[in-house]
Automatic annotation (TrEMBL):
<feature type="transmembrane region" description="Helical">
    <location>
        <begin position="189"/>
        <end position="209"/>
    </location>
</feature>
<dbReference type="InterPro" id="IPR009038">
    <property type="entry name" value="GOLD_dom"/>
</dbReference>
<keyword id="KW-0472">Membrane</keyword>
<feature type="signal peptide">
    <location>
        <begin position="1"/>
        <end position="23"/>
    </location>
</feature>
<keyword id="KW-0732">Signal</keyword>
<keyword id="KW-1133">Transmembrane helix</keyword>
<feature type="domain" description="GOLD">
    <location>
        <begin position="38"/>
        <end position="129"/>
    </location>
</feature>
<protein>
    <submittedName>
        <fullName>11737_t:CDS:1</fullName>
    </submittedName>
</protein>
<dbReference type="InterPro" id="IPR015720">
    <property type="entry name" value="Emp24-like"/>
</dbReference>
<keyword id="KW-0812">Transmembrane</keyword>
<comment type="similarity">
    <text>Belongs to the EMP24/GP25L family.</text>
</comment>
<dbReference type="Pfam" id="PF01105">
    <property type="entry name" value="EMP24_GP25L"/>
</dbReference>
<dbReference type="GO" id="GO:0016020">
    <property type="term" value="C:membrane"/>
</dbReference>
Length: 220
């Protein structure tokens, strides 16, 4: 009984943590087409991770809201987007690299209107990453899973993400340690080389000055 209670408590805690959703709500001012400045929201995401962005747009006349999703990896991957959003939009994609994923919005004001602070639209953005991006209700129906089986499947995914993150941190720590050791080795050899050069230069100066004074017959 105690073991079952402990397991239930652990399950509740992990599912509570996993249910945290990254969301943000903000006003996006409208600007002319020749002075657009994207408003970007970024989040670091690991490779091969499912991401679902749910966008809700507030009412705004004479304004066109576009969204584009990219990352800052060397490949500069693009994960799509949508132009002239007028209703709730759901964008799903799988990342191709460990990088910051940026969801960028622009709000273009109609050319017939002058810029004014009153021209803006409210953006409500919710982002589900990894286990939270999976529709377990649909999965349970497709595979005819019981509710507890669906929750255990979700818990398994959450635990796997934790393991993957710990493995990533371990590899990152190993790379940083290798970098520190390599830097220390280079500093050591540079210091040793500098000492040899200084000692050699000092010895050369002594020999040169001795010969110079002997030529001037200042010393024997």
């Amino acid at each position: 009984m105690i073991q079952y209670t402990a397991f239930s408590l652990l399950l509740f805690i992990l599912l509570t943590i996993s249910n945290l959703v990254w969301g943000i709500k903000f006003d996006l001012p409208a600007t002319p087409s020749n002075a657009l400045t994207p408003k970007c929201i970024s989040q670091y995401v690991y490779t091969d991770t499912l991401v679902v962005a749910t966008i809700k747009i507030g009412v705004g006349y004479n304004q066109i809201v576009d969204v584009k999703i990219t990352d800052n990896s060397p490949a500069h991957n693009e994960y799509g987007g949508k132009k002239d959003i007028e209703e709730d939009t759901r964008l799903a994609f799988t990342t191709h690299a460990d990088a910051d994923v940026s969801i960028c919005f622009t709000n273009t004001l109609d050319d017939e209107f002058r810029p004014d602070p009153k021209y803006r639209r409210t953006i409500d953005l919710d982002i589900d990453v990894g286990a939270e991006a999976i529709d377990y209700d649909a999965l349970a129906k497709a595979e005819k899973l019981k509710p507890i089986d669906a929750e255990l499947r979700k818990l398994e995914q959450v635990v796997q993400e934790i393991v993957d993150e710990m493995d990533y941190l371990r590899k990152r720590e190993a790379r940083m340690r290798d970098t520190n050791e390599s830097t220390n080795e280079r500093v050591k050899w540079f210091s040793l080389g500098s000492m040899i050069v200084f000692v050699g230069l000092g010895g050369w100066q002594i020999i040169y000055l001795k010969k110079f004074f002997q030529r001037k017959r200042l010393i024997d």
